[in-house]
């Protein structure tokens, strides 16, 4: 790393995070800890800490602090956080969200009350706040933090994605985020697209730094499993995505139904948060998940012949699935980066992708034009046609040049920029 002296970084993550955000944050911390010159204090809730300890393993450079253990308030805080977690799952209407917003802000202030205590205790050189992206506490002003403060902004979904309601709710999130951008010294983003979106926000004064994510932890690709691909073999498509309106699972199911009329030797593997709703009877409140599950159950007899649903998986299972599949699907309407797309590049796998700006950006950056087919239209017939073409003309895994950019490079860039504070 660039600094001769030891660098102490406090990384905060308020909300439990699952999926690509979790994977990138774990890999960032893991690679920061590989050097003796970096000490990390990870501040989060008990759920997130439990997960991260399991994924990160033991390191003498890592300390973990639980925000739910504020001295003198423990029973009240645990009750509040429990109510907050429950309401976050159940809130589906605007009226319910108003109560959620109140709890959101209270939990937020408890978090930063604890944070200032921990700053006095650990005396870090800087703070890297990694929980921004999915949602924000409403009406929360920036707290009094005396050391340099930076943000990781994975995307601006609340402003650009159809997953979030429009109107006053979005307006208040927007105002809160602008306030925070005004106090942050650095805003780290994973793509030029998000950098442009941040720059367009009126009032955002932070220095925007683009540090692109990498697609794999390893430094060399292993394509041995799928080198010998034959035209008459069973074709495995892989769609690693959480179930949300932005990810188009219903559209994928419709494409499978179209293909099932012509072909039998193909399978689509699903993994990601909320995919377990398709295989387990669980209480569902999210409207899109509910409609996706309903569509799946109405066509279960046919879909089950061509679906393998893994649910939420650990990194080892995900990496193994990449190596075993033949083609990756990337069907989002909006992304801040597109980690599955780049993970496919690192494994030399062909991709059928929605034609969105940030996916084009990654293809150009990693020089993987030969691996991607962009959908001219994001509809069931077009997707089915592209999948059919791959079934008829399958492509074996290729050696990829994407490994020139590694997680070690990413960790070094973060440490270098934070050391400038």
Short key terms for the protein model shown above:
421 residues; alpha/beta; Rossmann fold; 7-stranded parallel sheet; 6-stranded parallel sheet; 13 strands; 15% strand; globular
Brief account:
This protein is of the alpha/beta class and 421 residues long. It has 15 helices and 13 strands. The strands form 2 sheets. Strands 3-2-1-4-5-6-7 form a 7-stranded parallel β-sheet, sandwiched between helices. It has a 6-stranded parallel β-sheet with strand order 10-9-8-11-12-13, sandwiched between helices.
Question: What report would you give on this structure?
Answer:
The protein is an alpha/beta fold and 421 residues long. It folds into two domains: 7-214 and 406-419, Rossmann fold; 224-404, Rossmann fold (3-Layer(aba) Sandwich), CATH 3.40.50.2000. It has 15 helices and 13 strands. The strands form two sheets. Strands 3-2-1-4-5-6-7 form a seven-stranded parallel beta sheet, sandwiched between helices. Strand 1, helix 1 and strand 2 (38-44) form a beta-alpha-beta unit. Helix 3 crosses helix 4 (94-122). It is globular, with a radius of gyration of 22 Å.
């Amino acid at each position: 790393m660039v600094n001769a002296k030891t660098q102490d970084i406090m990384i905060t993550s308020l909300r439990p995070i699952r999926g690509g955000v979790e994977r990138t944050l774990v890999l960032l911390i893991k690679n920061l800890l590989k050097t003796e010159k970096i000490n990390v204090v990870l501040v989060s809730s008990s759920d997130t800490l439990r997960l991260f300890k399991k994924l990160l393993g033991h390191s003498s450079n890592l300390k973990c602090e639980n925000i739910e253990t504020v001295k003198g308030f423990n029973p009240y805080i645990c009750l509040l956080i429990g109510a907050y977690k429950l309401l976050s799952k159940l809130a589906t209407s605007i009226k319910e969200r108003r109560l959620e917003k109140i709890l959101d802000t209270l939990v937020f202030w408890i978090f930063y009350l604890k944070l200032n205590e921990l700053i006095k205790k650990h005396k870090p050189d800087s703070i890297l706040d990694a929980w921004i992206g999915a949602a924000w506490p409403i009406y929360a002003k920036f707290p009094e933090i005396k050391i340099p403060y930076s943000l990781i902004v994975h995307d601006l979904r609340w402003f650009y994605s159809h997953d979030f309601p429009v109107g006053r709710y979005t307006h208040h999130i927007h105002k809160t985020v602008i306030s925070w951008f005004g106090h942050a010294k650095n805003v780290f983003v994973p793509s030029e697209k998000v950098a442009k979106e941040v720059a367009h926000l009126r009032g955002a004064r932070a220095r925007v730094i683009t540090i692109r994510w990498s697609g794999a932890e390893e430094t060399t690709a292993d394509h041995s499993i799928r080198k010998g691909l034959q035209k008459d073999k069973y074709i495995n498509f892989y769609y690693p995505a959480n179930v949300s309106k932005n990810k188009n699972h219903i559209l994928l199911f419709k494409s499978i139904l179209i293909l099932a009329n012509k072909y039998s030797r193909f399978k689509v593997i699903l993994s990601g948060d909320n995919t377990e709703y398709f295989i387990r009877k669980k209480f569902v409140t999210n409207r899109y998940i509910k409609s996706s599950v309903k569509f799946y159950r109405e066509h279960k007899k046919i879909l089950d012949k061509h679906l393998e649903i893994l649910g939420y998986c650990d990194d080892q299972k995900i990496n193994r699935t990449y190596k075993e599949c033949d083609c990756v699907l990337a069907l989002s309407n909006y992304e801040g980066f597109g980690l599955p797309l780049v993970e496919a590049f690192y494994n030399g796998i062909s991709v059928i992708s929605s034609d969105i700006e940030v996916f084009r950006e990654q293809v150009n950056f990693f020089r993987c034009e030969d691996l991607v087919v962009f959908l001219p239209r994001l509809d069931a017939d077009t997707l089915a046609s592209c999948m059919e073409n791959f079934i008829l003309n399958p492509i074996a895994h290729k050696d990829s040049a994407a490994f020139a950019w590694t997680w070690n490079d990413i960790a070094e860039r973060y440490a270098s920029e934070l050391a400038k504070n």
